[in-house]
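CORE FACILITY INTAKE
Project code: CF-77B
Contact: R.S. (postdoc)
Sample description: multi-component assembly, four entities in total
Requested service: structural model of the whole complex
Turnaround: standard
Below are the sequence entries exactly as provided by the requester. Do not edit them.
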Amino acid sequence: MAKYKMIADTLKERIKKGQYLHDNRLPDQSKLSEEFETSRVTIKKALDVLTNEGLIYTIQGSGSYVKKNALLRSKNNIKIGKNLGLTTLVENTKDIRTEVLGFSVRFPNETEQTSLIISRDTPVYSYERLRYLEGKPYSLEKTTIPVESIPGLSKKVLQGSVYSYIKENMGLVFGEYHQAIRAAKPDEEDLKYLNNKLDEPVLEVEKVLYLETGIPFEYSLVHHRYDMVEMSFINNS
Amino acid sequence: MAKYKMIADTLKERIKKGQYLHDNRLPDQSKLSEEFETSRVTIKKALDVLTNEGLIYTIQGSGSYVKKNALLRSKNNIKIGKNLGLTTLVENTKDIRTEVLGFSVRFPNETEQTSLIISRDTPVYSYERLRYLEGKPYSLEKTTIPVESIPGLSKKVLQGSVYSYIKENMGLVFGEYHQAIRAAKPDEEDLKYLNNKLDEPVLEVEKVLYLETGIPFEYSLVHHRYDMVEMSFINNS
DNA sequence: CAGTGGTCTAGACCACGCA
DNA sequence: GCGTGGTCTAGACCACTGA
């Protein structure tokens, strides 16, 4: 591993242990370069890693400091649980099951054509999956993938992780995904599969997944039960 | 401005103009350092900026390439509009008005104590604001800020941008914010202020804003009308 | 094996915070 | 004005891609 990454890891460990809690201040870059027997540029690069990860901040002319909230950072993720509330801590339970409801090949609708940048004549896989937590359905997921992206997709693969299949068998590298999040009234399928009552909303997530190259790979529309799923994010202002 | 930033800006301009569209490939780093009369390290730093912004990707041993979706990137943001739909393009209209519904000082509840890391005896400002788009209310916002953070806050300030007031008058630097997003049934206040019907859900956003130092600064809980607001994000997988 | 990106160095100068 | 972080250089070596 690169030297700057190892230094970054070491510093992260120290921060976790509270080693710099005295005044939240890290040793200056010259001291660090002596300690790690390296150039100051390399130290700076390691500190940049910590800055980007939100663990420290630096003030030119003053020093580098550990953020007060360095330790309570969780990544962007989906929390799944029952009886979500404002202060409820949700455990990521492991009893999660996936049921494949349908798997077909068809032509894309207009939204899919736009999102995936394909013509109306480009065939796509289309499948729906229902997710269960402890036997209770919590989200209904409709996914669309151009056939040309993964020629050999089968229903069996859908039961597991499609992504690891793709990574390992196709050698594709994923890039970023764009998503839009809304609240919505339940539709007919939500009533049927998520057991929603008419006054129970869903959390709707529309997502486009891109490869590293920037080519769109997958379009999905997910409805989550409002009382079992929340999404959390960390952003920079 | 630093040289690497100027180079990054120049390259961004070129990408926008489509200058590297031939095979999506940028000149190699040696060529770029000749062109910009600088060292290769500086070029690398400029390319790192573009990589972090999701405009390009590099493959060691091969080259640097422009992503196919480099041009359709919008930042994380809130879209406000009427009749939101899956394919609807929403304009950020300017006819937005803010009404301050209440402004008081009190002690924090448990959620606020936890989120702001303050004791139950620490006084906080508490205020509600209602936002209108073209005369129609679209979100109800409840905000809590410890008094010690901004001793001189007044109701007048709330009508405008609290943040610019704070930046300019207090010299505070904002860091990141953490947010959780859910769908929820409307509560009594939503029915009253957002004119929700009983079967019309809200998009609930719980947010904690931190200063650069990592000290929590503001806690807020916002309810958005489901048919007027959506939130969009770009994430890395 | 030639081309390209990733990393690292030692030293330099500048910009900024703070007393 | 001293201490600190931010940037930059010229050159070097290594790791990886792809023909």
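Facility notes:
- Chain A touches chain B through 56 residues (CB under 8 Å).
- Strands of chain A lie at 56-59, 63-66, 77-80, 96-106, 124-133, 136-146, 174-184, 202-211, 216-225, 229-236.
Invoice: internal transfer
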